[in-house]
Design a protein that fits this description.
CATH superfamily of the largest domain in chain A: NAD(P)-binding Rossmann-like Domain
Number of helices of chain B: 4
Strand content of chain A: 5-15%
Number of domains of chain B: 1
Largest sheet of chain A: 6 strands, parallel
Strand order of the largest sheet of chain A: 5-4-3-6-7-8
Strand content of chain B: under 5%
CATH class of the largest domain in chain A: Alpha Beta
Structural class of chain A: alpha/beta
Oligomer: heterodimer
Structural class of chain B: mainly alpha
Number of domains of chain A: 4
Helix content of chain A: 40-55%
Distance between the termini of chain B: 7 Å
Distance between the termini of chain A: 61 Å
Radius of gyration of chain A: 36 Å
CATH topology of the largest domain in chain A: Rossmann fold
Shape of chain B: elongated
Number of strands of chain A: 18
């Protein structure tokens, strides 16, 4: 803030001196030029009168000639003084506005406002570098959970678009270069409230720079990075970046899972979808020959996992030498029928449009489907504003980097249990996944489930703790009972729990007895969480569920009904 | 040579000399104190102040402070003069005159401080 004042004062030096000089010249002239009063005597204006006169002439108010009508020589001088003072005022005011409008000044002002609002943050927050698709998703979902973030992006337009968003909490944002470590510090990197740094810019090297600066300036901080190439990924891992997310690898892994266990894929897809997304069923992809168009980072990752699953792939790539495509690659973009024909589209079972151009990807899918209707289509969507066209194209599986990265990060931050659950779920077989899918689908109707964590502790579940102290056993069944109607289950499924002794339970049974220190991961409707919170916070509601009878809560009623006061 | 410092030195010294010229003479005798000299001293002092606007150096900020003190003293003197001459019928009584001159004497001290700081700075940084 101090910088701004200095800058403004420095810029205002010349205009102010011009104003003072104009006044001095005008006043001095008026004092020196003799006038004639109403009796015809000579008089001279005093300094005070001259100052008064020039002041109202200069500000163009103009009261007339005081104290006596002017002589012609005084009027001549006044004409000069008028122009002099008015122009000097215009110059001074113009300069002031120019300073206020100056981009450099506005940047300094924005920077000062930003650092001030960051300084005022008193709760944990995340530092998000890069406000692209993934960044927007992360900030939005965090804000919905009332977790603050601080945003830095190089693109002015993205920062301005933030002002139009309606967040429930204040989110400071700055248009600046994140590779400059002073920017990171201004954004609160070294504040004790900073919970983590999330580097999501489109350039791997920028993300790497953010990660290394964060690790050096705040070694204990959690750092989450996006990396598109394996090279940078290894580099980031080398100095201890906590989580590195490669959207292409993540997608390829999921895609491979689709072949191995469609139900498991569904579990992953459902548990990691965004809030209030429609519940989707996915058709199992055919095991046959796949055509992969575009052998870039995405194409390579997908091709690798397809080969790993023992499927035959045909690669179509425009620039064979630059991408180091293997033998037998068809040269071409894949948007033309002739190239696809050459790749054997008529006998293929699936096509993957994985170039870095959305229009080309759509074109590949449309052309391919014209030639072979039964194709399973997979497309890479690079920009989120193409959502409409990709939805209209009716593609079997769409890969959106922003969504994949954003979702992973939100789960890492807001729901660490989910990450554990998914890790354990991977080791289960297909029939286990089938059971889970049918159970979840049975509780939900049309929307993808939401996941939430319940911690059994004095702070979060006081009623449960009270029941434990009285020696009452509370089981999972009691928790998932609707407190409004005993016998009805809430629309939720307990997926996973950890106990105080670090043991883990996957899909715990209904009669599992709860203990203090348990952490439970549920999935289901959002309102189920609200009702469950009612049970665990209100002892009478819990008691009603456990015993089926309503105990009198007041002392008087207790006396009458013969209950022992406790 | 730093032209900015030279220009500032010119104005601050001119302010001091004009102020001294006004101040010298019998304390309560209006004949010894010219109103135009006070006027000139005030203008020059204001310009000197503005020349120090936005100076981030410590010495620059101190100079801004001292010349602001001089401005305030001189403006107070000018206001007292104006009120006694135009606001009241009393005119320049010895009492009013002595308060005007003593106010300008305060400004003179501030000006001297400025010049001392200026000289110190010039001597310390031989450039």
């Amino acid at each position: 803030m101090q910088d701004i004042i200095y800058l403004m004062l420095r810029r205002m030096r010349l205009p102010l001196i011009v104003v003072i000089l104009a006044y001095t010249i005008s006043i001095t002239g008026l004092v020196l030029i003799p006038g004639v009063d109403d009796q015809g005597n000579h008089w001279r204006m005093t300094l005070f009168h001259a100052f008064y006169f020039v002041s109202y002439v200069g500000t163009t108010i103009g009261f007339g000639e005081v104290p006596y009508p002017f002589t012609d020589s005084q009027r001549l001088w006044t004409s000069l003084a008028m122009y002099l003072t008015v122009i000097s005022w215009l110059f001074a005011i113009g300069s002031l506005f120019a300073v206020l409008q100056d981009p450099a000044f506005r940047r300094v002002l924005a920077y000062a406002t930003f650092t001030r609002s960051v300084r005022k943050i008193k709760e944990p927050f995340y530092l998000v570098c890069g406000f692209g698709d993934a960044g927007q998703l992360v900030v939005n979902e965090l804000a919905a959970d009332h977790i603050r973030s601080v945003i830095i992006d190089l693109d002015e337009v993205r920062i301005q678009s933030l002002q139009l968003e309606n967040f429930p909490i204040d989110i400071p944002a700055l248009c600046a270069d994140v590779t400059d470590s002073s920017t990171l510090l201004a954004a609160g990197l070294d504040k004790p409230e900073c919970a983590g740094v999330i580097a999501l810019t489109g350039k791997d090297h920028v993300n790497l720079t953010v990660a290394i600066s964060s690790k050096l300036l705040a070694p204990d901080l959690q750092v989450i990075c996006r990396a598109d190439t394996h090279d940078e990924q290894a580099n980031m891992a080398s100095f201890g970046t906590d989580y590195i997310i490669n959207p292409f690898d993540t997608f390829a892994e999921r895609f491979a899972m689709m072949f191995q266990s469609p139900s498991m894929f569904l579990v992953y897809e459902w548990m990691t979808s965004i809030q209030e997304a429609p519940l989707r069923e996915f058709a199992a992809p055919p095991r046959g020959t796949w055509i992969v168009c575009g052998y870039g980072r995405f194409g390579k990752a997908v091709q690798k996992s397809l080969s790993f699953k023992g499927l035959q792939t045909v690669i179509v790539e425009r620039d064979i030498s630059a991408t180091a495509a293997p033998e037998g690659t068809i040269e071409g973009r894949g948007t033309e029928a002739i190239t696809l024909y050459e790749a054997g589209i008529e006998l293929a079972d699936g096509i993957i449009a994985g170039t870095d151009d959305d229009a080309n990807n759509l074109s590949i899918i449309m052309t391919a489907r014209d030639m072979n209707e039964k194709l399973f289509t997979v497309a890479r969507q690079n920009l989120s504003n193409n959502d409409g066209t990709f939805n209209a194209a009716n593609i079997d599986l769409t890969m959106k980097s922003g969504m994949i990265i954003g979702r992973r990060i939100i789960d890492l931050i807001t729901n660490p249990l989910l990450t554990n659950f998914l890790r354990m779920a991977r080791t289960q077989n297909e029939s286990w996944a089938n059971v889970l899918v049918s159970r979840v689908a049975g509780t939900l109707t049309d929307q993808a489930p939401e996941t939430w964590t319940l911690t059994i502790s004095e702070k979060h579940t006081p009623a449960l703790l009270e029941a434990f102290r009285k020696g009452q056993d509370v089981t999972v069944r009691h928790l998932v009972t609707d407190p409004r109607e005993v016998g009805q289950r809430l629309p939720c499924v307990l997926l996973y729990m950890t106990r105080a002794n670090q043991s883990e339970l996957l899909l715990p049974e209904d009669d599992t007895v709860l203990q203090a220190g348990d952490r439970l991961l549920f999935c289901g409707r959002r309102h189920a969480e609200t009702h469950m919170l009612w049970t665990v916070n209100n002892f009478h509601a819990l008691n009603f569920i456990c015993t089926g009878s309503d105990r009198p809560s007041g002392t008087v009623w207790r006396l009458f009904s013969g209950h022992r006061a406790d | 040579m730093n032209l900015e410092k030279v220009v500032f030195a010119f104005f601050i010294v001119l302010s001091l000399t004009l102020n001294f010229g006004f101040f010298i003479g019998d304390l309560d005798d209006p004949n010894h104190h010219n109103v135009y000299e006070l006027y000139a001293a005030l203008i020059v002092s204001l310009i000197a102040t503005i020349l120090k606007f936005g100076d981030r150096a410590h010495i620059g900020a101190v100079l801004l402070a001292t010349s602001l003190v001089a401005d305030l003293q001189l403006i107070a003197a000018a206001i007292v003069w104006t009120i006694s001459e135009h606001g009241t019928r009393a005119g320049l009584t010895p009492m009013v005159m002595s308060s005007i001159v003593s106010l300008s004497g305060g400004a003179l001290l501030a000006n001297i401080t400025s010049v001392v700081i200026l000289v110190t700075e010039t001597v310390m940084f031989r450039r």
